[in-house]
Design brief:
single chain, 145 residues, mainly alpha, 70% helix, 0% strand, rod-shaped
Amino acid sequence: MNFNLFKKKATETANVIADRSAALAKKAADKTKTAAKIAKLKADAAVEKENLKKAYTELGRISYELFKSAPGEDMLQAITEIDGIHERIDALNAEIEALRSDVREEDGGIEFEIVEEAGECDPAPDAEASESAAAEDPCEGKPEA
């Protein structure tokens, strides 16, 4: 084998390795951006959950004051606010799931896992959750962060 042929093969191999490395680096960067977006959405959802707690507290206060009378405009306003917060939380969770689906679909051989942070257990499960779902709560018995 002559030196020029060896040099040509080595150069081609180096170019292939460089191209693959660049592609892997781009995928890793894209996955990192997705993970950062998910983290931001989760933080936004946490803020909305705190807003929900405040709205429930206000609803409780108003309910107490109006206990024996018919609900007035104040009650309807608080209920509307709570419904809006629920809608925003649902939209944030839907966006998180869409991003997670994109990550799963684009998994081109790069291992990427979104890990839930400790302390994300919701201490007040939704009223709509079934008792069996509450019994299977993975957060059961975990200390709050």
